């Protein structure tokens, strides 16, 4: 008789302290000696995680009103421009926004500092109106004197991502790091068998409303992420071989931990932000068990040439090879390096496992599933 479980049944087991929770790596190892039916019988929840650069991130901030009030039209935080076109004192700071005079400092640094409780200088200007007469303000804000700081990230946790190399004769400075000429190195940025969307490739249990670990606290998946696609090529194990699905996520910045939100700067490219995300996956049946048993050697990804503007595919590899420290391409051995932190991903998966074990974190069934068969449009360039 095949195993069938529901979210509700698993949550009841969590509340009673009876749920069996394992990290994705532990289940991957278990899968070498157990069948999907045995895993589905023994395991209730699998914790997945990633900690890597996620440029499409940012934070909504409500500063509260001054006396007299101001309708902010241009504003900066520590000199970094912020978006003001929402309402009088609502701001959005993007993680990749740069300080105009210091390209190594940007929105991600401001976000990290606010989460850490540091003071941030706000400067804003306006034309002045009858109801908002103040025309300029310069003050200090921090987490103790503002109303809200809500992290909202439009595109996080890519399902898979290509390996970046450079065949040209010049070093290339990219969002995948510095790529040495003539295939001098290979950079990747996915946590492999720990990665959330690689453990639920069809997103049966992940959707709008899914409760997650975000930046050190509880967050939620609010929508599918920008550049979301589900028509990507799949390998023999049913996982996409290229960047496919993404997540839009939301969480309370007041409750976040700066050890799971870290600013970064890539030489001659710009600022990004490392975001820690953990997603619990319920093992509802044998099919889900088979998904969470995926191993690094079964997850394929493409190798792209970032030395060419068209990023042509040069070959393919898997995460077992990538994590070994080198891959082979065109009869040449190339050293590999991960932009994401497997150490931090493991820490997040373990923390989430402990929270579920203690009954502090219950699973939430998606209120709506993600779309199927979605592709991407490309921008037309007109001369």
General description of the model:
It is a single chain. This protein is α+β, with helices and mostly antiparallel strands and 383 residues long. The chain has two domains: 248 residues, no CATH class; 83 residues, no CATH class. Helix content is 16%, strand content 35%. It contains seven helices and 24 strands. Strands 1, 2, 3, 4, 5, 6, 9, 10, 11, 16, 17, 18, 19 and 20 form a 14-stranded mixed beta sheet that branches. The chain has a three-stranded mixed beta sheet with strand order 12-21-22. Strands 15-24-23 form a three-stranded mixed beta sheet. β5 and β6 form a beta hairpin. The chain starts with 6 loop residues before the first helix and ends in a 26-residue tail after the last helix. The mean pLDDT is 97.
* Form type: globular
- Contiguous runs where pLDDT drops below 50 for at least 5 residues: none
Mean pLDDT: 97
Continuous helix count:
7
Strand content: 25-35%
Q: Compute the separation of the termini in Å.
A: 64 Å
- What's the domain count? 2
Largest β-sheet summary? 14 strands, mixed
- Structural class by SSE content: alpha+beta
The tally of beta strands, per DSSP, is 24
Question: What is the rounded Rg?
Answer: 22 Å
In a few lines, what is going on in this structure?
The protein is of the alpha+beta class. Helices cover 16% and strands 35% of the residues. The chain has helices at residues 7-15, 24-30, 36-42, 107-115, 286-292, 319-323, 342-357; strands spanning 21-23, 45-53, 58-62, 74-77, 80-87, 90-94, 98-99, 102-106, 120-125, 136-141, 148-156, 163-165, 172-174, 177-179, 186-188, 211-214, 217-224, 247-252, 261-266, 270-282, 300-305, 313-318, 326-329, 332-338.
């Amino acid at each position: 008789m095949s195993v069938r479980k529901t979210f509700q049944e698993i949550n009841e087991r969590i509340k009673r302290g009876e749920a069996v929770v394992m990290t994705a790596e532990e289940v991957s190892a278990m899968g070498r000696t157990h069948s999907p039916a045995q895993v589905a019988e023994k395991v209730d929840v699998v914790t997945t995680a990633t900690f890597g650069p996620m440029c499409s991130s940012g934070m909504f901030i409500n500063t509260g009103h001054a006396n007299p009030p101001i309708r902010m039209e241009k504003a900066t935080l520590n000199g970094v421009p912020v978006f003001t076109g929402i309402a009088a004192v609502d701001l959005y700071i993007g993680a990749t926004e740069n300080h105009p005079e210091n390209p190594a400092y940007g929105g991600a640094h401001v976000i990290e500092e606010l989460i850490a409780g540091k003071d941030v200088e706000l400067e804003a200007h306006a034309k002045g109106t009858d109801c908002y007469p103040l025309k300029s303000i310069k003050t200090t804000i921090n987490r103790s004197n503002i109303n809200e700081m809500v992290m909202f990230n439009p595109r996080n946790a890519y399902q898979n991502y290509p390996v970046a190399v450079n065949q040209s004769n010049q070093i290339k400075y990219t969002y995948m790091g510095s790529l040495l000429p003539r295939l001098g190195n290979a950079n990747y940025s996915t946590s492999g068998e720990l990665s959330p969307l690689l453990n639920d490739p069809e997103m049966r249990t992940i959707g709008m409303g899914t409760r997650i670990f975000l930046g050190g606290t509880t967050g939620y998946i609010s929508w599918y992420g920008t550049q979301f696609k589900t028509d990507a090529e799949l390998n023999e194990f049913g996982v996409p071989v290229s960047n496919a699905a993404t997540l839009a996520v939301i969480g309370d910045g007041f409750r976040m931990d700066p050890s799971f939100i870290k600013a970064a700067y890539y030489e001659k490219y710009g600022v990004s932000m490392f975001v820690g995300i953990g997603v619990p996956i319920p093992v509802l049946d044998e099919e889900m068990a088979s998904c969470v048993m995926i191993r690094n050697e079964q997850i394929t990804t493409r190798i792209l040439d970032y030395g060419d503007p068209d990023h042509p595919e040069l070959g393919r590899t898997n995460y077992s090879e990538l994590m070994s420290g080198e891959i082979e391409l065109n009869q040449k051995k190339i050293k590999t390096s991960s932009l994401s932190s497997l150490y931090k991903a493991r820490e997040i998966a373990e923390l989430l496992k402990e929270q579920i074990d203690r009954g502090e974190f219950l699973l939430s069934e998606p209120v709506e599933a993600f779309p199927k068969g979605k592709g991407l449009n490309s921008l037309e360039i007109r001369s």
